[in-house]
Amino acid sequence: MSTAIVLYDIPSKLPINAWSPTTWKARYALNFKGIPYRTEWVEYPDIEGLYKTFGIPASATQKDGMTPRYTLPLLHDSSTGAFISESSAIVEYLDATYPNTPRLIPPGTRALHAAFIAAFESQMQAITPLLGIPAVNAILSPRSAAFVRKTKEELSEVTIEEMDLHGEHRTRQLTVVKDDLGKVDKWMTKGDTFVTGETPTFADFVMSAWILFLRISLGEDSPEWKELSSWHDGRWGRLVKFFEKYEAVV
């Protein structure tokens, strides 16, 4: 019998294949809930066609507010016919449709989750100069890498190599990332791994997805990752270590 749920993701050259923090949020949720699913890999230039094949509206718009933007993750549940894009919407759907699985957004916490996630991801903006397009392009499969290079270089009028930070510029940007994560650390109770105390919720999966992206992009054996994982009494290293049990890519 075929699996009802398909999670669409962007492939890479990595052994684990998965890399995107936005899709990791949804994958973590599926693995944590124990819901059977399978991954279908979609190259960057094929994402728009995927949406149009299924007759699904664009998941977002460009900064001009009008031009459609097609993004992953996208989840298809053939048992209900639903297509859901954007990780928070996917988690809300899974909580509602599969109520006998562990709930990730507890009742009455939807607004709090939205506020926390928005605040956390605003603190993660400093990783874009450090690990943005150059880092992602380096791990993408060749076809996606060529597409990203062409589109981003045309838009920015500089090469991807010129976007990459080196030397003192990189060191300074890593310090900014540390300071921003330090602000998040101060939101949390000292010694607690999770936002709500002892039980992980979607907010924790979001944080771990971004920290996992840092581990993947920097390289697990790199001095930068070893330094980052020790910041703030090792909070970030402990967090992503806890969620390793939900890193299966199926």
UniProtKB/TrEMBL annotation:
It holds the Pfam family GST_C_7. One of its GO terms (molecular function) is maleylacetoacetate isomerase activity. InterPro entries: Glutathione-S-Trfase_C_sf, Glutathione_S-Trfase_N, GST_UstS-like_C, Thioredoxin-like_sf. GO terms for biological process: glutathione metabolic process; L-phenylalanine catabolic process. Residues 10-102 form the GST N-terminal domain. This is GST N-terminal domain-containing protein. It comes from Armillaria gallica. The lineage of its organism: Eukaryota, Fungi, Dikarya, Basidiomycota, Agaricomycotina.
